[in-house]
Amino acid sequence: DAGVTQSPTHLIKTRGQQVTLRCSPISGHKSVSWYQQVLGQGPQFIFQYYEKEERGRGNFPDRFSARQFPNYSSELNVNALLLGDSALYLCASSLSVGMNTEAFFGQGTRLTVV
Amino acid sequence: RKEVEQDPGPFNVPEGATVAFNCTYSNSASQSFFWYRQDCRKEPKLLMSVYSSGNEDGRFTAQLNRASQYISLLIRDSKLSDSATYLCVEIYNQGGKLIFGQGTELSVKP
Predict the structure, then answer these.
(1) How far apart are CA A85 and CA A73, in angstroms?
(2) Beta partners for A78?
(3) Share of chain A above pLDDT 90, in %
(4) DSSP, residue by residue, chain A
């Protein structure tokens, strides 16, 4: 079975540009979350979607937006890129939501803003 | 104060050593935690869940101390393959959000 897949794996963008990152969850998983991981830090929560509804939002500016599609895949959009947006963006999928639900991470998209 | 805090290390230990990591959390109502492992430039992978008093899986033991608001991870008989960053994770908002510590780097040497 395929795990969580993210595309692209690497991306270089210029300041001010916009970027769209994609995530396909594990088959049967209905929840997708997005995290940003800056070098030397743990991942930081950006969004969670469950059954196509936004269920949680982290402390990120409105330049960050996301959505989940009927097939449970998800996109993360970042507008007006800043140098500080350079990071590893991780997508996590889980079967549902709940305290004992394991989150499985994709390999991430490494975004470099120059 | 960060919600979840870890000693970033690095911890450099010889093979066969026992090593312990601690993690403190600020939300006294939190009940469930994970330890994730992250290899260099890879995605995090679940190592252990930590509920109620603790959990043990082979060489790995995780403990939760609610009174002092800390979680620990003990690794016995360290292997070279245990070299990685260990992330302490608080489960928040009924599982809707994971709050990660900054990670503790472990390097096991021959």
Answers:
(1) 23
(2) A19, A64
(3) 85
(4) ----EEE-SEEEE-TT--EEEEEEPPTT--EEEEEEE-TTS--EEEEEEETTEEEEE-S--TTEEEEE-TTS-EEEEE-S--GGG-EEEEEEEESS-STTPPPEE---EEEEE-
Residue B68 to residues B6, B24, B30, B79: CA-CA distances in angstroms? 15, 8, 12, 30
Q: Which residues does chain B have within 8 Å of residue A97's beta carbon, measured at their own beta carbons?
A: 94-96
* Predicted confidence (pLDDT) per residue in A44-80, tens digit: 999 999 999 999 899 999 999 999 999 999 999 999 9
Q: How confident is the model over B50-105, as pLDDT tens digits? A: 877 788 999 999 999 989 999 999 999 999 999 999 999 998 766 678 999 999 99
Nearest to B96 among A97, A105, A107 (CB): A97
DSSP category for residue B19? E
Residues 91-110 of B with CB under 8 A from A: 91, 93-103
- pLDDT bin (cut points 50, 70, 90) of residue B41 is confident
